[in-house]
Amino acid sequence: MNRSRFKDDIVYQIYPRSFQDSNGDGIGDLKGIISRLPYLEKLGVTALWLSPCFKSPMEDMGYDIADYYSIDPVFGTNEDMDELIKKAKKHGLRIILDMVLNHTSKEHEWFKSARSSKESPYREFYIWSETPNDIQSTFGGSAWEWNEQTKDYYFHLYAPGQPDLNWESRKMRNALYDACNYWLEKGVYGFRLDVIENIGKEVENHILQNGPHLHERLHELNQKTFGRKESITIGECWCADNNTRMLYTDPKREELSMVFLFNDWGAFHDPYYGKWKCRPFEPKIYRDIIYARQFTDKEKSWDTLFWNNHDIPRALNRYTDLAYRKQAAKMLFASTMFLRGTPFIYQGDEIGMVNGHFQSINDYQDIEAINHYQILQEKGMSEEEAKEALEKTARDNARIPMRWTARKGYGFTKGKPWLDVGKDEKGYCVSEEEKDPSSVLSFYRKAIKIWKNKAYRKIIRDGDFQPDYLEKEEWIAYTRMYKEKRLRVIANFSAHTYPLPEIPGKILLHNYDDQTNELRPYEVFVFFVE
Ligand code: GLC
Ligand code: CA
Prior knowledge:
Layout: E1 11-14, H1 30-35, H2 37-43, E2 47-50, E3 54-55, E4 67-71, H3 78-90, E5 94-99, H4 109-116, E6 128-129, E7 144-147, E8 152-155, H5 170-185, E9 190-193, H6 214-224, E10 232-236, H7 242-249, E11 258-260, H8 263-266, H9 283-294, E12 303-305, H10 315-319, H11 325-336, E13 341-346, H12 367-378, H13 383-393, H14 430-434, H15 440-452, H16 454-462, E14 464-467, E15 475-482, E16 485-492, E17 498-499, E18 506-510, E19 518-519, E20 524-529
Parallel strand pairs: 1-2, 1-13, 2-5, 5-9, 9-10, 10-11, 12-13
Antiparallel strand pairs: 3-4, 6-8, 7-8, 14-15, 15-16, 16-20, 17-19, 18-20
Helix pairs in contact: 11-15, 12-13
Bound molecules: alpha-D-glucopyranose and calcium ion (CA).
The site of calcium ion has 6 residues, from loops.
């Protein structure tokens, strides 16, 4: 068994609701994904992470699971999932499911039983109290919800429709392991584990993340499920740092393959309004954080390299000047994909998609955005400021449908898209970019080929890391080296122009159509030096 096989994976995240609709109801589905497998194979990625598509009332768009064993009818059937797993494999793609193990939906049979009576055998699956403390829910309001039938409160770190599971219960843990094994036996490659840092929580002690039993639990999960096979696992960890990350990823500890960290994004958050009011991006601050990750103990850590996901507004809007959209989209990918770690592409990154065009507060579908429109005003923002904060930060920005064509419905649906706030703009869609050798899509395909090429594989996977040109505060520049061979990346993370240093070697990747002796706005070069 090759336990580090995942180090050669390049992962594409699909938000099933917004990827491809096959039946005209305006919502993406599994059959839609199946129809796009040739596209994904041609892109060159090796694994697909699907945001949850299990049965769900969709209060948090599927992150509220009502049945771990069934696909939600809106996405298709269990047979569709079997077909997807099988067909994907033929296209060289393996499936990663998104497992939400911190909480279920309030519609889950376990919870329905647990809330009905204190005698229920599922009572111990959840967290109850007659004297709730002051912990607040991430989506706003108290984290405790009154349950009339049993005259006490249940705990929910997210929406009231997402009761937290009690990981102290062995019976509950075994029930989750069964669900994971069910999908592993069907041939899925692994899991992205939603807010996994919360499963060691001790609410009575106000401990949510990084609880005392967290790693013991993860080790048990590993041993009882995916640890028995060749797999990939990615934990979502908002509160880990470079040191605590190694507790998850040190192979000797047998927990997870890797974790997502978010301190690079968090570095720009406002101390009072958090993510809802970011200060301007500074490449140097960002760079220091991602470089530091490269320097943590190589034996014990492995990075995740991503700019976007379904929870954060597009990096193109957050961090670049859209006047240079095409160059910047290419630069974002090329600047970090050659670091040590697994590159993640979020659907639409590869065509340079940007945030949605929200004109009214009624356009938002996400519970977090809807709640925060009020919360931000209660905290002191004017109505206008709250609206602007949502436009910049709401998660719906990342969830608008994939742009396959420039036509109405974007080739995503023949009906009306469930979230229809894309701008009606030319270009930046698959059908047009396919034909254009200088498009973002063509660049992604080329970059992925290089990343997978045997000639550079060892440098990218195992090579040492050394930052370059640290005095240039707006650059991301570094060298990866393995024996005598080197890859050198120089990226200009600004709209300024600099003289281009002379670098010997062959240009593997470059994002402008011509070359000068300058490093122009958002220009990036990748060199190979032997
Ligand atoms: C994770 C998911 C997010 C969800 C939350 C609660 O952060 O990525 O979409 O709302 O967990 O499940
Ligand atoms: Ca559909």
